[in-house]
Records
---
Amino acid sequence: MCHGLAVTDYRTVNRATWDERAPAHAASPDYAFARFVDDPAFLSDVVRFDAPRLGDLTGLRAVHLQCHIGTDTISLDRLGARITGLDFSGASLAQARSLATKVDAEVDFVESDVYDAPGVLEPGGFDLVYTGVGALCWLPDIRRWAQVVSALLRPGGRLFLRDGHPMLGTLADARDDGLLVVEYPYFERPEPLVWDQDGTYVETDVTFTHTVTHSWNHGLGEIVTALLDAGLELTMLEEHDSAPWDAMPGWTVRDEHGEWRLRDSPWRLAQTFTLQARKRA
């Protein structure tokens, strides 16, 4: 459920939600903590999907912004990156550090709001900035985010981003008649979408008490333009008709890569996108 309530401190509201969900996410089979422990070569579904696009990460100094409970971060470590994970949820980072200890991963985790990252990390110190699925929608200002990315990258350093497609973010809940209906903003708006939902996107039996979140959509052109204006050059942009989570329950099926696609005519909808950009010298 979404409504138009005004927001005074979106970070406090959203942090309470992520803090509460972190233990449930870590315990859920969807995040596969046990598989990370049992198999030293195991990678998260998100990182495995984009591994061919990521290329050789051996020795690269990297930072994963909005890393949540660290499964993608540890996957990047397993691909050879010297990785730091950053997130504003202390409870999420507690789960990430616990997993890193269990799998002997040398990953640093830093607690900070993403907009404050240049103040707690080394500006210009990173070869790679990585942002994964489900991150940008929690940020009200995409231009400010792009400036953070630029501040962290060394000249010639690379941004790697995969996230939900802004078109997916506009859609109403699945309908009985099979139509895809645009209900929510495509472009970034000053006011957030305020949601009140008692569940989460992974398998769990936990009942949550913090149910309100605030989010924003950002158009694909807005994201690209923000990066260009922040001193980056676009090197790749791919749109995908699949997502690593079931974004439209009842309408989707899992494909051979473990991704979810529309059962009927999946070419109607871009669900995610992958973008790469380099910081100009």
---
Amino acid sequence: MAELAPVALEDLLERFQKGDVRALARALTLVEAGHPLGQALLKALRGRGRAKVVGVTGSPGAGKSTLTDRLILEARKRGERVGVLAVDPSSPFTGGAILGDRIRMMRHHQDPGVYIRSLASRGALGGLAGATVAALSLLEAFGFERIFVETVGVGQSEVDIARVADTTLLVLTPAAGDAVQAFKAGVMEIADLFAVNKFDLPGGERIIQELKSALELAPPRPGGWRPPIYPTVAATGEGVEALFEGLEAHHQHLLAHGLLEGHRLERARFEVESVIQEWGRRRTQDAKELVAQVAQGLLSPEEAALRLLKAEERPL
């Protein structure tokens, strides 16, 4: 990526602060690429704005993108400016990602009050990349009042989203095994609200009853919050208005019990951990000899990691 002169950086910052969408897109690209100027922009802009951040997760095919599309409509009815980060997993082999979630949100592409950005997880061990949190900070600084972060809902991403979002929405369907898989994966403990989407299919009531039974055994949530369950049919919009009101009720609960600041601190902790993880991934790719010594039993993983840390402190 070409270097930006300081004057160009100041110009980008000025245009960003004036609400230039192209400046936002450029800033997001710099941050996602890990460019030093992207980090400089983040330092200058971080902490501005206070968006309501909603994480949307669930198994592939649950209808998350269509449901998010409907939730965007509800937010726009209330006059909110909406940002969307759609995170797709990167291939561990090619590094590529499909980034196709925008297809189901095309109705908003001409709405200046909606901005949708697709991101790749970039090998973040099946979860969210630190760049996702950085992008979230930029959208907040740009003035979006509600931000949806949609994950593909596999691997670590379901747990990660709870550390990044203020409110976590888990989307299930009446498809066989969905509720059981949710119990086994532990995501019951991180969801603040549940949507049983495609409720017009057989088995919807059974899923709701299973969820209610499981929630009765779940540990109490901060402030005494009890996760509600909403039946929805995203394709037609049925139940979406009630679900949106539930999202708003959870945000008001966080405000009333002083829980938002803790969420912001956890988000920053996650971002720092992600930077360390990415640093380690890059360093081990370059340290083939050191990795070979671990495989041969000549070094323990801890000893190898310490050597990498010491090598970082002084040139090799």
